[in-house]
Amino acid sequence: MTWVGLVRKNLLRRPVRTLLTSAGVALGVGLIVALLSISAGVEQTAGDLIHLGRADFGLFQSGVSDATRSLLPESLETKIAREPGVAQTARIYLLVTSVQGRQSSLVFGLAPDEFPARRLTLLAGDRSAALVGDAAARTFHARPGSTLGIAGRRFRVSGVFHSGDRFEDQGVVLPLPTVQTLAKRPGEVTTIAVTVALGARPQAVASRLERRYGITAIVEPGQAVKVDTSSRLVIDVGWVISVLALIVGGIGVTNTMAMSVFERVREIGILRAVGWSGRRIALLIVSEAVGIALVALALGLALGLLAAHLFTTRTGLSTLVSPRFTAGVFAWGLAFALGVGIIGAVYPAWRALRLSPIEALRRE
């Protein structure tokens, strides 16, 4: 019998116990995968939104549930524009609403004379009315001269643009006052985009503005959780649960493998009598624990995929955030599963090492 076959046979001796132990570890794996994929999704979304119009950073209201719920007074832009190191500023309103009946579409309110609007590359038509990103034009089958239903109103499409920004190209651009009216927030914007003067460091300028005005500046995508309190809460609570799952999973694997050793004392004694070394016995125990971890990994990945989608669709996370399942996310899930399995095998393997062949063969 091969080594893998022997491990498989031993694990299937108590299939229910093996499955329950794997399920406990899978909970931790699933949480790790879900949390890291959500974090990656938040960073990707932030990277697209804070650099609208190729801005160096964006300014947001502090402590909001997500970036689209930020509200800043429009008059703040004038003050920001006078700050040292600031080259250009722009007011932006990010409105998540229905477009052509499609919920959670993004509408951008831009001032035509500010840099985010000026930097749009027009592919067709003109800038006299609503502009549609090229990706949105394909989705909504829109072209210059057609109309779009936005938040219960009809707007004529005057042009199609391309910006290179994923969200902007999937959205619709309207004049800032129009979007403020749709949102019933006159005189307010969700973000102020900033470009810094030549030679100035974006992070230094952003930090100074944060301290002076009590707002949040996002320079890098990884800083998005400074604004997005919903995702931060979910992630923080999730990490606590993951640590608990690590402890519970480790205890479960330890208990399962310890019971396995106890039930197979005579078998271990026979193996030692026919020439198996203590290290080889210990390696068998560790291999069985790793087998449990691999089963848990498969269950945990499926659980993580489901949990990540539930977190982003059923909680307060922005509808703009989609989980990103990168190789790094799956690597962390694998590391967690194997770590729990190996840690859980330490005590049972040590116990098996201490068994002498004669003592083991005397056991009934």
Largest sheet: 10 strands, mixed
Proportion of residues in β-strands: 15-25%
What's the end-to-end separation, in Å?
26 Å
* Domains (count): 2
What Rg is obtained from the alpha carbons, in whole angstroms?
29 Å
Counting DSSP E segments of at least 2 residues, the number of strands comes to: 12
> What best-fitting shape do the alpha-carbon axes yield?
elongated
Uncertain ranges: none
Order of helices and strands: HHEEHEEHEEHEEHEHEEHEHHHHH
Helix content: 55-70%
* Mean pLDDT, all residues: 82
Helix/strand structural class:
alpha+beta
Number of helices: 13
Can you characterise this structure?
The protein has 13 helices and 12 strands.
Which tags fit this structure?
two-stranded antiparallel ribbon, elongated, ten-stranded mixed β-sheet, 13 helices, 2 domains, alpha+beta, 364 residues
In a nutshell, what does this entry contain?
With 364 residues, the chain is an alpha+beta fold. It folds into two domains: 3-44 and 231-362, no CATH class; 57-218, no CATH class. The chain has helices at 3-11, 15-50, 76-81, 115-118, 134-140, 166-169, 176-183, 202-213, 229-263, 265-273, 278-314, 327-354, 357-362; strands spanning 57-60, 72-73, 86-99, 102-110, 121-125, 130-133, 147-150, 153-162, 172-175, 188-189, 191-196, 216-218.
How are the elements arranged and paired?
Elements (H helix, E strand, L loop, with lengths): L2 H9 L3 H36 L6 E4 L11 E2 L2 H6 L4 E14 L2 E9 L4 H4 L2 E5 L4 E4 H7 L6 E4 L2 E10 L3 H4 L2 E4 H8 L4 E2 L1 E6 L5 H12 L2 E3 L10 H35 L1 H9 L4 H37 L12 H28 L2 H6 L2
Parallel strand pairs: 4-9, 6-8
Antiparallel strand pairs: 1-11, 1-12, 2-10, 3-4, 3-11, 5-8, 6-9, 7-8
Helix pairs in contact: 1-11, 2-9, 2-11, 2-12, 9-11, 9-12, 11-12
